[in-house]
């Protein structure tokens, strides 16, 4: 097992199965697009272990608490790691993180979007360490997300051959 | 004529004229910024053949139907291809697509943003095929877009010399 | 002093001190992430000279005028330049700008997001000139921003060694 996957196992974390889409939904793009040494990572949301889209649904700061939002962002990190694992075979091939764009489904005026997306950043930093895991980041509130998920995150990372 | 442009012609599709801006609007940036082997593509919206911004205006899921939204995303693909053609001379110089960021002007809680942006992705895949056309993607709902357009898309692609 | 910093001084512009965060806020990411020859620039907002987050807070088109919004975007450019200066030592090391993503905290249906973000673009172009300063851009309206700031901008630029 790779170093990153050992660390995930030691933390008791499992990666979800491939996204199980609701009926009639077509997503004509890969979850990770490898071009040269770059992994362009599509917008991901939180998933359950069986790959289904994870509740709770709706807006952070309304029906979803800040702490729930942070856990959904952490789950979204696991969704992204699962996609990277399927695409790359080994999570150690993620050489370094470059940028992360975090989107929170929230009520107008909700001001704690960074605290929500920290659930993602903290897990990536714990797994990859401060040098490889370091990433530029924005964390904003959006009007709507697919399937009414509460958090969506896209990213870019450098990979090794 | 290039391969991609032949395909457009065979599909009966025309590229719009350069964006005809409303009076007093200044956009101090290029629609495509070429740096090295990369085309950084600014946010584009749907245009009519004469270059004017395309109606309908407003929010998908309110005054604009899902199917209208999808057609506006398809028109936005043509706007982007028109900008790339003007910048590169030949659409075959778009070597491969990397990432696409789709923004839908919609009511809070609208959940079908991916189906809207599929209008873009499906045309790019039809023109460039599954290998060159493949792109990472996010599709989100936003509070507002310039000129009250319903769809805006930015992207990044690799180009050849 | 570098060429860019001379120009800033000649324009009477000062760069703000490092961001002074509100209590209890943790941002586990760098404001600029250098990877190879690229500066990935995190979402920044307007700051006062002392580094505190700059008022006015809220939504452009409601409590904040278009002209105030434009000035906040200009201040955001100074925040980003301050982060780049701290990271690179010399603003002349920003070789060329690639892409800019501008987010405006605004009421649904606000249509002048480009005019707001022009406050950023115009300053970058004035400092770096049309060739190095040229950038692809999107300017959208979002539902919420951290700390209820009115404008947030992320970007990517190429740097020299």
What is this structure, in a nutshell?
The structure is a homotrimer of 161-residue chains. By secondary structure, chain A is an alpha+beta fold. The first copy, chain A, is built from three helices and five strands.
Task: Describe this structure as you would to a colleague.
The structure is a homotrimer of 161-residue chains. The first copy, chain A, is α+β, with helices and mostly antiparallel strands and 161 residues long. In chain A, 32% of the residues lie in helices and 24% in strands. Chain A has a five-stranded mixed β-sheet, covered by helices on one side. The first copy, chain A, is globular and about 45 Å long. The two termini of chain A are 17 Å apart. Chains in contact: A-B, A-C, B-C. Chain A binds chain B through residues 25-33, 35-36, 38, 40-43, 58-59, 101, 103, 108, 142-148, 152, 154, 156, and chain B through 96, 98-101, 104, 106-115, 118, 121-122, 125, 134-143, 156, 158.
How are the secondary structure elements laid out?
3 copies of one chain form a homotrimer.
Chain A: H1 3-10, E1 32-35, E2 38-44, H2 66-88, E3 94-105, H3 113-132, E4 136-142, E5 151-159
Parallel strand pairs in A: 3-4
Antiparallel strand pairs in A: 1-2, 2-5, 3-5
Helix pairs in contact in A: 2-3
Helix content of chain A: 25-40%
**What is the fold-level CATH name, i.e. the topology of chain A?**
60s Ribosomal Protein L30, Chain: A
- In percent, how much strand structure appears in the residues of chain A? 15-25%
Which CATH architecture of chain A?
2-Layer Sandwich
Question: Which class of secondary structure composition applies to the elements of chain A?
Answer: alpha+beta
Mean pLDDT of chain A: 96
| Quaternary organization | homotrimer
For the secondary structure, the number of strands of chain A is 5
Q: Quickly count the helices of chain A.
A: 3
Topology as H/E string of chain A?
Answer: HEEHEHEE
Shape of chain A: globular
